[in-house]
From TrEMBL:
Molecular function (Gene Ontology), one example: carbohydrate binding
Family per record: Belongs to the glycosyl hydrolase 43 family.
Native species: Luteimicrobium subarcticum
Domain CBM6, residue spans: 488-626
Site for Important for catalytic activity, responsible for pKa modulation of the active site Glu and correct orientation of both the proton donor and substrate, residues: D286
Alphabetized Gene3D superfamilies for the sequence: Galactose-binding domain-like, Glycosyl hydrolase domain, family 43
Protein name in UniProt: Arabinoxylan arabinofuranohydrolase
Keyword list, A-Z: Carbohydrate metabolism, Glycosidase, Hydrolase, Polysaccharide degradation, Signal, Xylan degradation
A GO BP annotation: xylan catabolic process
Recorded superkingdom: Bacteria
């Protein structure tokens, strides 16, 4: 009989975790620590590492895991440590930073299965309301840019990162047991874009891959808090997207379109701690951009509360002086001169900038530790405040507050982030809150709020004297501006309302929008993973007086099923049924159907999906309605056609349009 001893220690992605190589291969000393192999305090095998000479808590053995771990993966780190401590004594470096021995150090990737329940489908946005802008996906730190009759919302891609294959992955952060944990923002590498011409029907434009190896800005680790602008350069309209690399600097991407593709024109941060005038900025993030009437451009950024030896004084919390403004070069991707300090009372984060008339408005979010009254002004915590100036570089004068913390309106608080914009002669404020997440908690699929945010819009009032009134965060949101034209191709990723989701990141648990090509996340977006019982809707669809007679859809058949086209409610009258055959999910095709009657007037249109209970039915790329043939026009009735007694001579036919919404006037014949 033979006895086999234990195998070599498995350190996972760490090499030589058992220190059995007879050397400190791949291990190095961090800080002032000294490392030496020894056998006296080994946990297993022949050796352990003995650590001496520590002067700081982080002093000890380190090993790089670059290239060895998977982005978004969950890892279990363990080590066996031998240490001798004093029984009693006053804390000091000699006792607290003692020598120790370590052995069997491992870092192993776990296979995580999310354990939170599926819950019930939760539609955070009720039919007839407009907030949140989308309830099938998160999106935070909004910035609104108006261009060519559309509002483009750029948002931090909460919960998203880019995997090793370059694909955008949306997933909650989880602990080792698969439970959802609070959003740390540390994995976010994308910026999401949606757009609308009417403020209610929002078209998903996809995700911009910004940071990381497969992002446009490979030098950046994260992409937070976007700000966008456009400017004519050399006779061509160019688009600029500014973003925060965590709190470490501001980057910029450029494009010929508001939706991309995007590229990094400079290959490094636009603004960093090396930029003149930035000393004293605690957090180098949250950009805002302004292109002035004369074409000059300015970038606003910064935030954070300074401290001394880990403690912030009242002066530091009340006047952090951590916001900056710097002029941009004519190319919009360089800076000119030195950054100027904006002394915004109680500033925390979230720079905003607007020009109204001849006045510049700088807005920001206040911190959570300042004095209740600063320079005679009562300033709440976590609130959007604003200042004004006649010069884009300042100085700015404090004026008041605009928007209370989201917790005031929706229960779940957290940080506050906003942007103000004008569209169709009305001012609005866009901001984020945890409204979708709250719906998921109420539906049972999340245990509590974890800091995943959603974008909203409400009206903003500006007085004749330039004073901004207090905005109110609501679920009702804003009214539709205009109507939607159904007679051209309408992307199925355009959604006013939908049936909701059970889980924000499980593809089979509710309405989903995804790129048609996974390798091109900013390309064509489609309604994906359609299941039985789900529905989406378009608001204020204007069919006109002639009306529509047919409907068609571009689809990718899978299990197959039907689409019921309904008017004015999810269970409204069925005016058309599209039949989608079964297929292999490889070839797109167009299905069409005649409408049961000519649909005229303006309606909300609901597409409800029917099929096998457990089947992925199909994907939808677009919807198109076709106009009915125009009715024959009868002869003009003039004086020559009418007898002296006032009776029309001969037989005439005509149709009267009374202009009543959702009513059709019958044809009368006189003889």
């Amino acid at each position: 009989m033979s006895v086999t001893g234990p195998g070599a220690f498995d350190g996972g992605v760490l090499a030589n975790g058992g220190f059995e190589a007879g050397a400190l291969d791949l291990w190095a000393a961090n800080g002032s620590a000294g490392l030496a192999l020894g056998s006296d305090d080994k946990a297993s095998g022949a050796c352990s590492v003995h650590v001496t000479g520590r002067k700081a808590a982080g002093d000890g053995p380190i090993q790089s895991v670059a290239g060895a771990i998977t982005a978004g993966g969950t890892y279990d780190v363990s080590a066996k440590v031998f240490v001798e401590t004093v029984w009693t004594g006053t804390p000091d470096a000699a006792n607290d930073l003692m020598d120790f021995s370590a052995d069997d150090i491992s870092m192993k990737e776990e296979t995580v299965v999310q354990t939170h329940p599926s819950g019930d489908a939760a539609a955070a946005k009720a039919v007839g309301t407009s907030n949140p802008l989308m309830d099938y996906q998160y999106g935070a730190d909004p910035w609104a840019m108006v261009y060519d009759g559309r509002v483009y919302e750029y948002m931090t891609g909460d919960g998203s990162h880019i995997d090793d294959d370059g694909h955008v992955v949306r997933a909650y952060e989880t602990d080792g047991s698969g439970n959802v944990k609070d959003n740390s923002y540390g994995r976010i590498q994308t910026i999401d874009v949606i757009s609308s011409a009417d403020m209610v029907n929002w078209r998903n434009e996809g995700a911009i891959k910004v940071a990381g190896t497969h992002g446009a800005a490979t030098w950046a680790s994260n992409s937070w808090a976007p700000a966008a602008a456009h400017r004519t350069i050399d006779g061509k309209e160019k688009f600029f997207l500014y973003f925060a690399n965590s709190a470490g600097g501001i980057g910029v991407l450029t494009s010929d379109s508001p939706t991309g593709p995007w590229n990094d024109p400079i290959g490094e941060p636009l603004v960093s701690s090396a930029t003149p005038g930035t000393s004293g900025v605690v957090w180098m993030f949250d950009p805002a951009v302004l292109v002035d009437d004369d074409g000059s451009a300015y970038l606003y950024f910064g935030g954070g509360v300074p401290s001394t030896n880990g403690t912030s004084s009242a002066e530091q919390t009340d006047h952090p002086k951590s916001s900056r403004v710097i002029r941009l070069g004519d190319d919009m991707v360089s800076t000119v001169g030195s950054a100027a300090t904006i002394d915004a009372p109680a500033v925390f984060e979230d720079s905003g900038i607007n020009k109204i008339g001849d006045t510049y408005y700088y807005s920001y979010c206040t911190n959570f530790s300042h004095s209740a009254t600063i320079d005679g002004h009562s300033i709440p915590t976590g609130t959007i405040a604003y200042m004004t100036s006649k010069d884009p570089m300042g100085p700015f004068t404090y004026q008041g507050t605009i928007l209370a913390n989201p917790g005031t309106f929706f229960g779940a608080g957290g940080n506050n982030h906003h942007a103000m914009f004008e569209f169709q002669d009305q001012w609005y404020i866009t901001y984020h809150s945890q409204t979708v997440q709250t719906a998921l908690v109420e539906g049972g699929s999340l245990d509590t709020e974890h800091g995943y945010r959603s974008t909203q819009i409400d009206r903003l009032s500006i007085g004749a004297d330039g004073t901004i009134g207090q905005a109110t965060g609501t679920y009702q949101g804003v009214a539709q501006v205009g109507t939607l034209d159904p007679y051209g191709e309408v992307s199925a990723a355009t959604i006013a309302w939908d049936s909701g989701i059970q889980d924000a990141y499980q593809a089979s648990s509710g309405v989903r929008v995804a790129p048609q090509d996974a390798d091109d996340p900013t390309g064509t977006q489609v309604l994906a993973n359609v299941d039985d019982g789900e529905w989406t809707a378009l608001a204020g669809v204007a069919f006109g007086t002639t009306g529509a007679s047919t409907v068609s859809a571009s689809v990718l058949p899978r299990a197959g099923g039907t689409v019921k086209v309904r008017l004015d409610a999810p269970d409204g009258d069925v005016v058309g049924t599209l039949t989608v055959p079964a297929g292999g999910g490889t070839s797109w095709t167009t299905v069409s159907a005649d409408l049961a009657r000519t649909v005229t007037g303006t309606h909300d249109v609901f597409f409800t999906f029917v099929g096998g209970a457990d089947d992925h039915l199909f994907d939808v790329g677009s919807w198109t309605f076709t106009k009915a043939a125009a009715p024959a026009t009868g002869p003009v009735i003039d004086a020559a056609s009418v007898s002296a007694g006032g009776v029309v001579s001969g037989t005439r036919a005509f149709q009267v349009d009374l202009g009543v919404r959702r009513r059709t006037c019958r044809t009368r014949t006189w003889s």
